[in-house]
Amino acid sequence: MALRESAKHAGQDADLRLVTGLVDGDGGVEHGDFLVRMAEAVARWQWNDVARLREESVALMGEQPISDAILVASGFNGITRVADATGIRLDKITESTTADLRSLTKIDDFAPAEKWSGS
Amino acid sequence: MRAAKLPVRESTLRAHQRTLETIASPGAWWSGEDRIAIVEEARSAVNCPLCQQRSKALSPATIDGDHDHNGELPEAAIEVIHAMRNDSGRLTRRWFDGVMASGLDREAYVELVSVVASSVVVDTFAQGIGATITELPMAQPGEPSRESSAEVAEAGAWIPIAAQGKANILSSLGLLPGAVDLFFGAFNESYYMGTTELDLQHRQVELVASKVSAVNQCFY
């Protein structure tokens, strides 16, 4: 994920620790707090929460952006399963473009040695 | 997508419908009927009591039992579908070896992964925007093609991946070109791939994507 790169391009500094709950707030991303809550509810298939957040959000962001946020969350709900079920390793490109994000969010904790050690 | 509470782009509607129609057609290792049964199983797996117990356990491998399933697919396929749908962040090489030892071909496994993940994309979006889950099309007759790619390489993954590719995630299903086309046909609408338009700032997209990866305990 190139969140830090994107934030740089926008001339702002996003706090990536928002992703793993290490900090509160919007992380320097417009509606970041709301988007994180929506992404989590969609990823966990908590449809009552999603419905409530949808209601809240339309006035906040507009209908199409919310629909697109749910679309992004849906796509990543699928692609994370592909990554997890194929046991792929980090490639050099992904590793280099996500180094800062990985360091800040501690996301590498989700890749224990057991992931690749056989029986 | 019936009764959607939010607007849906025409391109997304078309892509997701095409995904379901492709699933209903014979694949490389599974028939159209099998592939529809895989999606039906993935849809019902969310209510599986064994999966619910396992997801609460410190290690899913410590909980024995039988999945609550529709009975139309081999046991190994049921395990893959349920584990992918309900606890994908804790899949391990040991789990994969166990599944393969119970009789799945690696090609069958790759196709299974693609069908389940594609259906997750389509169904999550439909439910997320407040629509009813799309009815599955009728399975198309025909035999699986048994076509796989020879252009694969060992890259430390559980399965061989496409030999050519910029990022491993794009190569991960490369053993079966049809599995790549199926999954990315659904996924590409959800991210900056090709001509995809999203009414969000780039960093908002990355924030949502990163949060979903974290919730699913996916390191990639």
Question: Topology of this protein?
Answer:
The complex is a heterodimer of chains A (119) and B (220).
Chain A: H1 3-9, H2 32-43, H3 47-61, H4 63-86, H5 92-97, H6 99-105
Helix pairs in contact in A: 2-3, 2-4, 3-4
Chain B: H1 10-23, H2 32-44, H3 49-56, H4 75-87, H5 93-101, H6 106-128, E1 152-153, E2 161-162, H7 168-171, H8 177-187, H9 202-215
Antiparallel strand pairs in B: 1-2
Helix pairs in contact in B: 1-6, 1-8, 2-6, 3-4, 4-6, 6-8
Care to describe what's here?
The complex is a heterodimer of chains A (119) and B (220). Chain A has 119 residues and is mainly alpha-helical. Helices cover 60% and strands 0% of the residues of chain A. The two termini of chain A are 31 Å apart. With 220 residues, chain B is mostly helical. Chain B has one domain (10-215). In chain B, strand 1 and strand 2 form a beta hairpin. In chain B, helix 1 (10-23) runs antiparallel to helix 6, helix 1 (10-23) packs antiparallel against helix 8 (177-187) and helix 4 (75-87) crosses helix 6. The interface between A and B is large, with 76 and 76 residues.
- How do the strands of the widest beta sheet of chain B line up side by side? 1-2
Largest sheet of chain B: 2 strands, antiparallel
Q: Share of helix among residues of chain A?
A: 55-70%
Helix content of chain B: 40-55%
Structural class of chain B: mainly alpha
Termini separation of chain B comes to 31 Å
Shape of chain B: globular
- The SSE order of chain B reads HHHHHHEEHHH
User: What is the total number of structural domains of chain B?
Assistant: 1
Question: What labels describe this entry?
Answer:
heterodimer, A: 119 residues, mainly alpha, 6 helices, 60% helix, disordered N terminus, B: mainly alpha, two-stranded antiparallel ribbon, 9 helices, globular
